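Table S2 (continued). Query chain:
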Amino acid sequence: MTGYQEILTDPSYKGQIVAMTYPLIGNTGINPEDMESAGIHLEGFIVREYEGYPSNWRSRESLQAFLERHGKLGVEGIDTRALTRRIRMTGAMRGVLSTAPEEIDQLLRRVRAYPGLIGRDLVKTVTCRQPYLWKDGAPREMAEGGHADRRVRRRVVVLDCGVKYNILRNLAKRGCEVRVLPATASGEEILALRPDGVLLSNGPGDPAVLPYIVDAVRTILGKVPIFGICLGHQILGQAAGGRTAKLKFGHHGINQPVKNCRNGRVEITSQNHGFVVLPESLTGERETVHENLNDRTSEGLRYPALSAFSVQYHPEAAPGPHDADYLFDEFIHLMDNGRMPG
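Corresponding output:
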């Protein structure tokens, strides 16, 4: 019912059409506090029924006005239950939204010519153009924080592959100075900032076509604590010698069950990805610490000798449950103590 604003502004959805399964969308409107980036990144938005008169004290504009302001197409009146069943039976598919439904043959040619996500580097379309400092809940020019704040105990460099603001909020509220670099930054540029830790962010597209990011991470691996989230998990896996593969059924939504293999606890998680790290392809010491309970794919890995760990899902939520919020505390512990907690 809520959370659609965070989905719309999550850069991980670049190149995708998103269908919401809750039947009524738009009733809480849009507000500036729930933005996960500066704009909308998905290509189209499908709902069963649109509510154009939001009832929420934080709302500043309607969903329709928000979509129009960003030049994005939204459509209502679709049987999203039938659409979901079709996708769950056949796997992720290419699709097209159009205001000219009578041009069926032309639309079919367009959708068949669409390359899909495999083999496409979408990170360069969503990463920041210049480094910035996350301060007081918003991006600031790096010059404003050019010198280290002596009151801050930890400096974290975030490699922006399509980062969500809530990742930055979670680091900042734990007392970190957060510096965000473009995904094209080299390993030497990252280390030059003398970080206490590096976070590899979420992002869109195929992780197998990002050798420039993998090479940068390989340069810093073992020299500084690393935490990878979603695409960052896939990049870290490749830097550690592994491979990724496309899932027939991607993991999407805010109710994905994940088992913590260390304590047996089941966490309900927020996810959006269509690729997976193949644990059997990894070399060296590593530990699978999280597993998806729907298809048994790997959802989290640790590399104890390298002071690095990663998860395939979104511990920052926004939207979604907060079961995995503790992972940010584990990153803090890793930076402070040089090892993961028990």
